[in-house]
Amino acid sequence: MRLVMISWVSTWENNVNLTITPTVTSVLQANNIASILNTVLFMLQVCLIPMFSKISDLTGRAEVYTLSLMLYIVSFIIMATAPNYDNLIGGKVIYAVGKSGCAIVAPILIGDMTDIINRGLMQALYNIPSIFGMLLAPLAAGALIAQGQWRWAYGINSILLFATAIPLIFSLWNVDFKARRLLKSEAEQEKGHEEEEKDNKKSFYKKVVWILNEVDMIGSIFLIAGLCLILLPCVLANTRWGGWGSPITIGTLVAGLVSVILFALWEWKGAHKPVIPATKWESSTPLWASLATLTIRLISASNWQYLLTYLQVSRKASPAKATYLERGFSSFFVVTELIIGFLMKRYRVWRPFVWSGTAFLILGVGLMIPARLPTSSDAFVVISQSIAGIGVGMLDVPLLVAAQSSVPHNDLSIVTALYQMGGSLGSAIGSTMAGAVWNAMLLGHMEKYVPGDYNYEKIVRDIDYAINLPVEQYNGVVTAYGEVQRVLSIISVCVASLTFFFSLPIRSFGLDESEEDRIKANAGRSTYTTKEEGKT
Question: What values do phi and psi take at 30, rounded to 5?
Fold first, then answer.
């Protein structure tokens, strides 16, 4: 129940953020580069999720969850008081750290507490409270926006998180203390007091070095640097840095390429516990499942990034109405997850749901091409969103359970992190792609469709300014926005086809098989060893 409460608040804040972001970025004169917020979030999650996964194994779930929730709460205070867009991004960085820890520990806890047959259903039940967040959060956010109190939307999130986090943190620490006492008692029986004293006196420096090696801090830094330096110019080159030929853009891209090369070399030759455990298991199922979820999240991040802005401008929809039009996807996603979790428990299979889900996803995204035209009905928008939501709902739980079930239970946290890492990488790429396409194409379409003299920068930075243009210019802006949105939908259809191909190599097995049989079906036992282990 305590985990469910955190799930509800997490979904609440996510829907509040979704609703207020177009307004906030318009107030801060940065709506055209709103994708930077999600790009920063997901780039950091790519590295932070596996790092938190390893730390939770080393120190315990309670420590990681407590730290994550504290940062989660602090981030909303920073965003609520942000005087400009750059400070808002700073708050988003802290948000990414806190959110990443909570995002990875919850599925690990569910995996720890359930067997393979019930795991899919429990993962789905964990997400059920999100429906209430989807229904109520846009109303609350819309009311705050109408009163000009968007900062309180962030402030309320911090209060709700604090109130719901206390019971869960107390329970986790209670279990943690009991487990530590039990382990300490067993350890005292197995070895003498002198040996225990010797272990406790191990130098602080050696402990720090050991932890940094375990979480592969050097590899994480190279990866974050590479992603930031390559992806951010795609959005900022033309909007803030003076074009692709400017010194800052070229220098950033070159530095990013160098960072990626150094990351690859470090992971290949230097890392004891690589960030991306590509060779950890003989089974390739975790890798293919992660690639499949990468494509799914890439679609949602790219094709949804500017959807609320587009709906508010093209249909003059309120922030709450625009959010409800978009939320058909998430609502059907959660409901379908629950149904699929039950069917997996009932029939002990998962693979048919992956293939059916891919078909629904391609159909839904394909329908978005005509559904998102300025002249289409609101019902058509909701239908296309809902079909895509059904598809992703059929895919998500089976892919996660397939990845978790193909490795030994001791590797549960690592494979869960790899799966979520794939999703975060897809979201980072998708957000960047959306920002790059939006800013690269919109100027040309504005010149083509908007008559007379106009201020391009004000139009793309402020929704209210765009809506209040003279009728002929407003209609031209709507047409220009619609053309760019259509291109993003076409790209998403192409990416959706990759989801099917990535699901084909995943080895099939029954959910009622033993762990040993499942691992054998997925190409054998886990063979991961560190470089130090390999020498012994």
Answer: -145, 25
pLDDT computed for residue 121 by the predictor: 67
Residue 353 C-beta-side C-alpha neighbours within 13 Å: 27
Closest CA to 225 of 254, 260, 266: 260
pLDDT at position 461, please?
Answer: 87
In a domain? residue 170: yes
Q: Which two tokens stand for residue 339?
A: 């149904």
Does 259 reside within a domain?
A: no
Is 264 within a domain?
no
What total of structural domains would you count in the chain?
A: 1
Cβ–Cβ under 8 Å, residues 88 and 34: no
Quickly state the pLDDT bin for 486 (edges 50, 70, 90): very high
CATH number at residue 292: 1.20.1250.20
pLDDT of 365:
92
List the structure tokens of 25: 């970025």
Q: pLDDT of 33-76, one tens digit each?
A: 777 878 888 888 777 877 777 777 677 777 888 888 889 899 99
Work out the pLDDT band at 456, boundaries 50, 70, 90: confident
Summarised one tens digit per residue, pLDDT across range 378-430 is 999 999 999 999 999 998 888 888 887 777 767 777 787 788 888 888 888 88
Q: Three-state secondary structure along 301-315?
A: HHHHCCHHHHHHHHC
Query: Is 228 inside any structural domain?
Result: no
Number of neighbours of residue 264 by Cβ within 10 angstroms? 15
Residue pair 358/289 in contact by the 8 Å Cβ criterion:
no
> Looking at this protein, which amino acid is placed at residue 21?
T
pLDDT of 159 higher than 70: yes
The number of CA neighbours under 13 Å toward the Cβ of 517 is 8
Domain that holds residue 434: 2-182+201-216+272-530
Q: Do 386 and 521 form a contact (C-beta atoms < 8 A)?
A: no
| DSSP notation for 189-216 | HHS-HHHHHHHHTS-HHHHHHHHHHHTT
Nearest to 392 by CA among 126, 137, 124, 9: 124
